[in-house]
């Protein structure tokens, strides 16, 4: 297991508290923590910082900052849409075809997941349940919920990269 992944796991609870303060939401903090883990696992052994804890927290802080920026862009886009200033009235045929193809790939990936992983993913993303609520509903640990979510998210990410 890469050194940074070990550092991430060792400081996970502290990192979650840090991200909760940054984002204002425990659920968003969990999503940012997952993104942090993915980013660290992608770097493998390339990054070898002297202070691994500080590096992990810097990556997490950057992801939380990106989350805030994305949220601001979404709000801005919603405001433009609501005020009727959308600019484009019809989607380009190529864009529609590409979007449909992406949706088909994601649908295939989701349907290929184990039933429990898919159930947990749907409960979180569609029903909006927290990891803790899902754990109670499914009678599993929060850690198990995180692992199921990570499995589905990594599969979706792989499908989007293809």
List the helices and strands and how they pair.
Elements: H1 3-10, H2 12-23, H3 26-43, H4 52-82, H5 93-111, H6 115-125, H7 131-138, H8 142-161
Helix pairs in contact: 1-4, 2-3, 2-4, 3-4, 5-8, 6-8, 7-8
Task: Describe the protein in words.
The protein is mainly alpha-helical and 162 residues long. Helices cover 78% and strands 0% of the residues. Residues 8-73 form the RNA polymerase sigma-70 region domain. Belongs to the sigma-70 factor family. ECF subfamily. Residues 106-156 form the RNA polymerase sigma factor 70 region 4 type domain.
CATH architecture of the largest domain: Orthogonal Bundle
Count of helical regions = 8
CATH class of the largest domain: Mainly Alpha
Strand content: under 5%
What is the terminal-to-terminal distance?
25 Å
